[in-house]
Write a structure and sequence with these properties.
Length: about 290
Amino acid sequence: MPLLFYWQPENYARDREFGFGFHLNQSSPVMAAARDGDSVWAFTRRRRDGVYVLAAELVVRALTRNPPSYRYGTYRIWGDLHRSRYFDVDFGPNAEPLIRALGIRARAKRLGQSFQGARAVREISDADHRLLYHFAADLPVYPHAAIYPEDEFEAQLVHGPAARRLMTRETRAAIDRRLRYLYDTMNIHRARRNVEILQELYDGRCQICLFNPRIRCGHRLCHGHHIEWLSRGGEDVLENMVLVCPNHHAAIHRDDATFDYADLTFRFTNGLVEPLRLNTHLPRAL
């Protein structure tokens, strides 16, 4: 079932500043209707003139549950990285007449008021989806909506500013903005301590395969991985982290494997399901 949701302007501005996440977190039970391949359309209100414009089309590749205390919602939709797109709202045309003409009730004086609370996410028909698809056919796409190398961001936390040399794919301005985000919003000492806590909690073992490099190699080689990537706005808290061996860490990053707190499993695009075989710190979704 295709969906439509209202992206609050302040949330849109924040996400655009720090990098779009290619996911959507919401508590609305309507989210449970999303299936792989469905489109989730987003619109927002442009700040400079108050015009409502299309902001994104996320093509669903997975629907999972977040931990029970997660402040941004119960459900998470993971967008397909290759098929999803973010539109440049600075140049988008007025989408309000089209949205009001869809087969949903959106009669509030201000369009955004029709998408509040439990109605923030709305189911739309396949016919409505086709109308949005054709409307978006020639919209300018935001050129910087990309996933940044998460392993490099995690290296920042472990190795500090010396890891800056790894970040070669971005312009100088983009690198500086990302570094400010990391260092201004996160407590680096706490971040490193979180990894140490996981190492101590699991005696250095991978939570997925139980590989123990301390016994085999004499060193702690497992990594602290952020389930919701830092480069997508994830928080550096234990509830968002697992301890995994380098092989599993690389595979999760390369595949962008999804994680579901409902059953504490990583799911890969080839169908492989990897449960946490060792866990005492992550809560299950309610």
